[in-house]
Amino acid sequence: MLLGEEKGLSAAGRQHVAVMTEEVVRLVRACKPMTIVDATVGTGGHAEALLEATGAHLLGLDRDAEAISNAGARLERFGDRVTLRQADFRNVDAVLDECAMPWAGAILADLGMSSFALDDPARGFSFRFDGPLDMRMDQRQELCARDIVNEESEEELARIIAIYGEEHAARRIARALVEARRRRLLETTGELRAVIEGVVGGRRQGRINPATRTFQALRIAVNREMESLGAFLDNAPARLAMGGRMIVIAYHSLEDRPVKHRFRELVNGGHFEAVTRKASRPTPEEVARNPRARSARLRCIERRSA
Fold first, then answer.
1. Which residues contact 241 (CB under 8 A, 6 or more apart)?
2. Cβ–Cβ contacts within 10 Å for residue 65, how many?
3. pLDDT, tens digit, for every residue of 192-212?
4. By Cβ atoms counted within 10 A, which residue in 127, 165, 183, 297 is the most buried?
C-alpha cells in the first residue's frame, strides 16, 4: 500500500469499507467455492460480503491480532462458517494444513493497509499522528521501525527508502537520519517526520506529504512485506481447487508488479487462465464514495487443470 492509501472508512468514520467489494463478490460467486481463504481479512469487510453472497466456509488470516479480534466480532453471526487465524499470509499453506483444508475454491488478498491501524497513534504507522516508531503489524515480532532508523547504516537506510519508498531523495534523507540520531536517538513518528521535512521541505499543494514514501518504506522493511507477498504468490496458487480463483488487490506498482508477473507465469504454464486480462480498477462511482480506493488494482486468475 502506497502514499497513505488505506482500506477506507465510511462517512460514519469507524465502519470499515472494503475496496471493490462488488467486483470481488462477482468473481468469487461465479466459481461456486466451498471454501474461501481471505488471506488478509483485516476487519472483515470482504469476508462479510462473501459470506452473505455464498454458502462457503471462510478461513480468514491476518498478522494483526487486533484485526482478527475486530473481524471476529463482525463475522460472529456466521457462526461455524468462519475460521480465523493470526498468521502471515506467506504461511497460507501451513494454516490450510492445520485446519485440514486441502483445497480452497477461492483465495483473496487485499494488500491495502487498514485504516484502523493507520489511525492508531500507538502503532506508529502514520506521519499524521505523533506516536512511537513502531510500525509492526504483528506485535509479537521484535524488530520495529525504531530499530531500523537508529541502527541501520546510512547505506542500508538509503537502499530501503529508495527501493521500498521509490523516494528520489533517499540518500539525502538517510544522511540526515544518521546525523540526527548522533545527537539523540529518534523515538517518535513526529521526530522522524521533522527530519524528513528538513531535507525535502513541507507539503506542497496538490502533492503528497514528503514523509509518505519514507514511512511506507520503513513499514515494508519492518514487516518484510515484499518477502511475504512473494511467498504467498509462490504457495497459494497450488492450493486452489479446479475452477478455483485467486484474486489480489494491490495499491501501487511495487506490489502490483510481482502479482502481474506471477499471474502471467502461471497462465503461460497452461494450468491457469486469466479472468482479468488487465488490472481492474474501481468505478468512478466507488472512488467518489471512497477516494481511498482510487489506486486499487485487482487481478484474478482461475485454475483450469492439475
1. 33, 34, 103, 104, 105, 303
2. 13
3. 999 999 998 866 545 678 899
4. 165
